[in-house]
Specification:
It contains 10 helices and 9 strands. With about 270 residues, the protein is of the alpha/beta class. The chain is globular and about 50 Å long.
Amino acid sequence: MMSTAALRAHLLRAGLAGTVATPRETSLRSYRLFAARDPRLLIGLDPEWAWTQRDVIALMAQKCGVSADPRHTSGQDVIDPELTLAALDAFADRLGTVARSGGPVLLGTGHPHRLLGFYAALAGALSAAGCGVLTPAQGRCVDITTRFGLRTFVIDYVRGVALVRPHGPGRTGCEPGAHTHSPLPVRLALQAAADAGGPLPALVIGDHGWVCGAGQLGFEAMGLGDTDDPALFVGQAEGRVSVVVPLDDGVRADYYRPLIRYVLDRACLSR
C-alpha cells in the first residue's frame, strides 16, 4: 500500500496540492459569482443558506487551505495537502462501504481529458466487487449553454464513466469528451434511469455538475473539487455532497495514478 508520506510527496511534486495552477484571481471571481448565484458557478446546486463572498472564502480556506484573507487577491492558489489526504481517506472509506454493499453506482466527469482514467479505475474495481456500474441515457442528446452559445452534446460512456461529446452534422461519435460544468447530463441520466424502472445509484462519483446535480436531487454524491469549484464544498457544508477531495483537477492524467492505487488499497478494492 502506498504510504501517506509518499502520496503527500507526490501531491506536492505533481502540483495536485501545495501551490497549484489556479490563479487566486480566478478563485475569487468564482466565489463572487457563486455568492451572486450565477448558474455557471452553482453547477446544479441550489444553496439553502445565504453565502457572501467572504463566507465562501472562509469555507474554502477551511476545506481546501486557500488564503482566508480577502485582501489576498493575486498569485497562485494553495491547497493544503493534509486536507487532500484526509478527504482521500474519507473518499476511500465510502467507496469501500458501497463496494461491500454491492449497491449500484454512477460515475461521470466533466474533465474527461484529465480524470477519465481515475474514474474508470474506480468503475472497474467497483464492478469487480459486484456493484452495478450504471450507464443510463447513453446516446441521448443534451443542450448545454457554453461560452460559444447553446451547443448539443451526446452522453456517452467510456469504461463505465459518463461524459459528453459534441453532436451534430459531420460528427463521427469518436470525438473526445468535452469539458463541462453543467448538471444537465446527470439530471438526464438519473431521469432516464428512473423512467426505465431500473436501479438508481446508491452513489454518484465525479466532479462539477455530476456531483452537485446529483446531490441536489437527493442522491449521495462525492468527488473531486478544485479551488475555483466552490459549489461542491458548499454542497458538502449543507449536507448534499458527502465527500469532496480538494485537488487541482487539471494536471496531467498520469499524475492521478498514485491516487488510484492509494484509494483502492484503502478501500480494499485492489486486485
